[in-house]
Amino acid sequence: MYKTLENSVGDTPLVRLKRLPGAACDARGNVVLAKLEGNNPAGSVKDRPALSMIVHAEQRGDIKPGDTLIEATSGNTGIALAMAAAMRGYRMILVMPENQSVERRQTMRAFGAELVLTPRDGGMEVARDVAESMRNEGRGIILDQFANPDNPLAHYTGTGPEIWRQTEGRISHFVSSMGTTGTIMGVSRFLKEQDPGICIVGCQPEDGSQIPGIRKWPEAYLPKIFDRARVDRIESVAQGEAEEMTRRLAREEGIFAGISSGGALAVALRLAGELENATIVSIVCDRGDRYLSTGVFPA
């Protein structure tokens, strides 16, 4: 039976890293696994919440095909929403800082989305403010990935159960970069219901570091879906460390991923140096091809 594109979201591979963990990790009995979310149709973990938010809003009668949707995004959610909007017949307006990679903008436009670019100095905070102003002017409906419970729900019903099944319940540590925080919130909720002893580790950028997809929000802009109690440990990662690990992930494991994935993996390997007999799962959020123009990868 043929799948629809919607039914192709999720069920992404979980692969064991062979070279990056090194002999010391193996000697300690640790296993480091990478969840390849770039295998989703639009290329990132955000395909899950994008489809979830649209489908559940339709079911509630909040939106209908033909409506205009507005969303502030740094990239991946926007691309995923643009794909989902194209599938289900919506006009999509995406508001994003102007310094995001050209590949992201081109991909959004390829799916038919309209872009509103905001000043780079204002970051995502200004993009969110502009989106809300447009909504208040009656120009469209905001699904609001930062406050919408259908965002973490996608990971509670999808990503978390997949990881539990793929590790046969052996997972001991889950590592995820934190941006909107939907992934870590939904996965944490599911995994803790299976085994409260599983350690949930969030990854944030060090002060002064700018890592696409990883944020440390000012208190006023902290996502409403975020519940600090669902994260056992928060680790900081430097921009240079995340970028170098992203390059190594491609060179040494053959996994071409984005920079937030390198940040999360750097934290996962940090844990592997401390632990024994652990099964550590790290989220690879997206693919590296949408970062080629940033200079992170050698030309």
From TrEMBL:
One of its GO terms (molecular function) is cysteine synthase activity. Pyridoxal 5'-phosphate binds at residues 76, 179-183, 260. Signal peptide: none annotated. It holds the Pfam family PALP. Keywords: Amino-acid biosynthesis, Cysteine biosynthesis, Pyridoxal phosphate, Transferase. Its EC number is 2.5.1.47. Residues 7-286 form the Tryptophan synthase beta chain-like PALP domain. The modification N6-(pyridoxal phosphate)lysine is found at residue 46. It catalyses: O-acetyl-L-serine + hydrogen sulfide = L-cysteine + acetate. Pathway: Amino-acid biosynthesis; L-cysteine biosynthesis; L-cysteine from L-serine: step 2/2. Belongs to the cysteine synthase/cystathionine beta-synthase family. This is Cysteine synthase.
